[in-house]
Structures are given as structure tokens and as C-alpha cells.
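User: Can you predict the 3D structure for this chain?
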Amino acid sequence: AGDYSVPPKVESHDEIGALASAFASMSAAIQEREARILHQAGHDLVTGLPNRVAAESAIQRERMRNPASPAALLVVGLRRSPEIIKTMGHAVADRLMRDAGERLVRILGDAVARATDIEFSVYLPGEGKNGAIASAFRIIDALSAPYQEAGVSVDIEAAVGVALAPEHGLEANTLLRRAGVALIAALDSEEPVVVYDAATDPHRPERLSLMGDLRDALDHNQLELH
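Assistant: Here is the predicted structure, written as C-alpha cells:
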């Protein structure tokens, strides 16, 4: 039934005592295994940080408790991740991500999670635009020093996308997606920090709808040149 509390101790040296001892040992072993499975389900194996599912759930719970309060969600990406993986392999890339995660935790604590293989997320409840941008540049500064390994020095070159609640969304998945869109804009520009802007978002649902409408219009000869 999911209750792994230690049963009452049986002071007996006969078969009943041996059976009670066996049940107690089994209960403790199952409890330890369940705790390990639950931890692994919610944490990234490489960095030990909460994974995207756990982070999204925690953010959603906080938003439901304080739907009108300001908050900032930052997604941190590394410009050279694909190049690092292709040149040095996944093992080195994993150690680099572990090092980057440790740097972020030192300045931001348990606000940090691993969003994807090459991205981190940082949730800052109560933070507005100015504070979020200041935190983003602290992140850029923390990741500015190269990663060193076996005589090889690798520049991390971080970029940060920022989404703000409630103006950019109320749901955790919406904030994560829009911070990711802002990160793409930052990776494609010389600006290391970009705040989400709906006017320049190429991934809006209405754009997908427009693409479908245009395809249908082409199929049915419904376009006119003026």
C-alpha cells in the first residue's frame, strides 16, 4: 500500500522473530529503492539537477498559488554546444554541462534545473524585468570563464532567453516555451540576453494556422494578385 514504515520490533528468537526481522529488512530495502527511483525520475543523471518535468511541475504549483504575482523564467543555452559535441564527444559535453550547472547553482541555488541536453532553466518568483535581466547577466558572467579539461580550454559562450509572468504567460509550459523562443533569438544575435517579444515570435500558434490556411488557399486557387 506504499507504507514502508518500520514495523514494530518483535522480541523473539523463534520462527516468528526471524520472519518479522525479514519483513523489516524487506520494507527498508523497498523504501530505499522507491526513494531512489523517485529521485531519478525527477533529476538529471549528468548534473544531479531537477529535470524539465520536475521543474515544470514546481513552477506550475507556484503559479497556481500566486497567479498574479510577478516571476521570471530564464532559459540558458550554450552557443557552441553542437560544435563541442561534434568535436569532443558527448562525454566531455556532459562534464562541461555538469561544470556549468555547478556554477549556476553557486549563484542561484535551487532555482536552477536542466531544461534539455544543452539548456538550463532558472525560475525566479517575485522577479520583474529589471531583476531578471540583472540575473541573466550574472549568469553570463558566471559562465564566461572557459571550461578546462586535460589541457583543453573550451569557451562556453552562454546566452539567456527571458520570459516574464504574468505578461508572457500564466502556465509553466507557456513560460518555458517563450523563454526558449527568446533564447533562440539571443543565440542568433550578438545580444547575450533577450526578453521574449510576442511581436517577433515566429512560433505563435496563429502563424501555424496561417501556414495551413495558405496551403489550403493554394490547393483551391484562392489567392489573387493585386
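The mean pLDDT is 88. The helical segments are 15-42, 52-65, 81-88, 90-108, 129-142, 172-187, 205-219.
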